[in-house]
Write a structure and sequence with these properties.
Blueprint (H helix, E strand, L loop, with lengths): L4 E6 L10 E6 L12 E6 L2 E7 L14 H10 L4 E10 L9 E10 L24 H13 L4 E10 L7 H9 L4 E3 L2 H10 L4 E9 L12 H24 L27 H6 L5 H4 L1
Helix pairs in contact: 2-5
């Protein structure tokens, strides 16, 4: 029987998991450099958890400098089977008010300065990203928000911007016309890299503000966001517990566990051994 090992990537507002038993911070080395922090190993009930603070403890790493390849590789090396990511976001919709939790199912990627793939010259691969999140995990996550006492919206589109500055008003208004529902700075290339590592991924956004598209209101400021993050964080810690408690005892296979079966394109005799060595964790299943 296959067991779950859940990787939790905590963003702004989620820096700890209160219910974690046998908790131990462990250093994980990766060929992609240092992850954002050590990985906190522990369990909730019978489910193993691996917690990684996306910005490091103390929120010391800005969005553009998060080493996402190292983070995903580290979680894979820790035996993670699935990832639940939690992140603070701005709202681009009136009905997605501050304090609302939003389960994402699509992304618009506007990041420009971040390595977005494990693959490259010497080993080329193209994974499908038409449906970028795991529907099974997303359903568990939505139910967990409700069980934790939060208000949830589903099927949202997340606009990933480079940052670290917030949007201009013109950008915020434009993103609304594109069909984006929430905006943040960290979910890409995180979701892309999770897919390449064959790790099913779900994202819950915690709304802190209305971005700046509401022209009658003052622009968003960090002080207001921090205040809302504190309230969101209480529910976020409970939702992680409810999420884990609701998982079936047995983890049945996901189609996302084997996406690399149909993604590798470089001929075996043209593959660079140095590149293959760096892919030992994320693609070792198919590269041998």
């Amino acid at each position: 029987m296959t067991r779950w090992t859940i990787g939790i990537i905590g963003g702004s507002g989620l820096y700890a998991i209160d219910a974690l038993a046998d908790a131990e911070w462990r250093t994980v080395a990766t060929p992609w450099g240092e992850p954002s922090d050590q990985v906190l190993h522990g369990r909730v009930g019978d489910v193993q958890l691996r917690f990684l603070p996306r910005h490091g403890r103390g929120h010391r790493i800005p969005p553009s400098e998060v080493n996402t390849r190292a983070n995903i590789d580290a979680l894979k090396r820790c035996g993670v089977t699935d990832i639940l990511a939690i992140s603070s976001v701005g709202s681009l919709r009136e009905e997605l008010e501050p304090g609302r939790f939003v389960v994402v199912d699509q992304f618009i990627d506007r990041t420009v300065a971040r390595p977005a793939s494990f693959f490259g010259t010497g080993m080329v691969a193209h994974v499908s990203l038409a449906e970028p999140v795991c529907p099974r995990l997303s359903a568990f996550a939505a139910a967990a928000v409700t069980a934790a006492g939060g208000k949830v919206a589903e099927n949202a589109t997340y606009l990933a911007m480079e940052g670290p500055q917030f949007s201009t008003r013109a950008e915020s208004l434009l993103f609304r016309t594109w069909g984006a529902d929430i905006i943040g700075m960290t979910a890409m290339p995180e979701a892309r890299l999770a897919r390449e590592a064959e790790l099913p991924y779900a994202l819950v956004g915690m709304v802190t503000d209305y971005d700046c598209w509401r022209e009658s209101e003052a622009p968003v400021e960090v002080s207001a966001i921090i205040a809302q993050m504190g309230a969101n964080g209480v529910i976020a810690r409970r939702l992680v517990e409810r999420f884990v408690e609701a998982l079936p005892a047995e983890r049945t296979p996901s189609p996302l566990d084997t996406v690399l079966d149909h993604a590798l394109i470089t001929a075996p005799d043209a593959r660079d051994p140095a590149v293959l060595a760096k892919l030992d964790a994320v693609a070792g299943r198919v590269l041998g």
